[in-house]
Amino acid sequence: MTRQQTQKIAVVVITGVAALVVVPIVLVILFIVINGLPAINWEFLTQPPRNGMREGGIMPALLGTTILTFGTAIVSFPLAIGAAIYLAEYAGNNRLTRWVRLAIVNLAGIPSIVYGLFGLGAFVLFLNMGTSIVAGSLTLGLLTLPVVISTAEEAINAVPQQFRTVSLSLGATRWQTIRHQVLPHALPGIVTGIILGLGRAAGETAPILFTVAAFYLPELPKSMFDQTMALPYHLYVISTQVPGMPLEIQYGTALVLMLLVLSLTLVATVFRTSMRRRREW
To answer: In the chain, which ranges are continuous DSSP H helix?
Structure first.
């Protein structure tokens, strides 16, 4: 077998494997779009559910997911970026640091329901926050911390060492170097990790099941210590717990949730691409 024949076989095999991965995903997305698009209208997006959630819209669940997503950002991202800066710029390469990085990687792989049980025990019961937006945001914040820390640290480490050397040689302090040289160049990777973490938080069901999500609550929350509906849990409820639920409402809710997560991913991709084009290295 010649080298050209081997190359062609490799291309065919790789293309086939890629098709096996991509085609089912595209078919699932098309199936949800075709079945859910008829339900999408202004009333569906702006009205609360009625008649046992068999009619009306998803506005309380959509608003609840938005609030939880912003709450997650407020809780986790300052801590995550601060931890990433410390690990990348200040912490030495010793046994303790290696153990910390290993712990972060392992935490990123823990099932989300474990975070939900931890949030139930720590925030809902021990700290007496009850099932509330605060408890849900803290739980989702813990869920996204490992992913954002790892992504931000990799983005910071990707900045060439020469930037730091030149800045320090000109008399800048280490923090001035990090603030004015390292972070601006690492920003695309950091923001990408943040938005992807938000996308994961917006689509999680298990953590909010124990800490914040309400089965049926058409009223909007009045404070951060109230319960709220959320799209992932609402989709689970109308798909499994409500008899006689119209299929178009189920698929419409799934389509809105999918578009919300996909839009966050698209924003991350566009931002990363535009920022990389401005790089000078």
So the answer is: 3-36, 42-46, 59-85, 95-108, 112-119, 133-157, 161-169, 174-177, 183-203, 206-211, 231-240, 247-277
Q: Which CATH superfamily is domain 58-277 in?
A: MetI-like (1.10.3720.10)
User: Do 107 and 145 meet the contact criterion of CB atoms below 8 Å apart?
Assistant: yes
In the 8-state DSSP scheme, what is residue 220? P
Q: Would you say 119 and 139 are in contact if contact means Cβ atoms under 8 Å apart?
A: yes
Q: What is the structure's pLDDT at 261?
A: 87
What per-residue confidence (pLDDT) applies to 81?
92
By C-alpha distance, which of 198, 209, 194, 199 is closest to 114?
Answer: 209
The CA–CA distances, whole Å, from 190 to 88, 147, 155, 186, 187 equal 13, 11, 6, 6, 5
Nearest in space to 132 (alpha carbons), one of 234, 210, 48: 210
Amino acid sitting at position 222 = K
Q: What is the residue-averaged pLDDT of the chain?
A: 88
Q: Quick check: 271 and 188 in contact, CB under 8 A?
A: yes
Site of tokens 């480490």: 157
CB atoms within 10 A of CB 22: 10
pLDDT at 280: 60
Distance CA(258)–CA(240), nearest Å, equals 19
The predicted pLDDT at position 194 comes to 86
The rounded Cα 107 to chain-centroid distance in angstroms is 15
**Main-chain dihedrals φ then ψ at residue 122, nearest 5 degrees:** -85, -50
Report yes or no on whether pTM surpasses 0.90: no
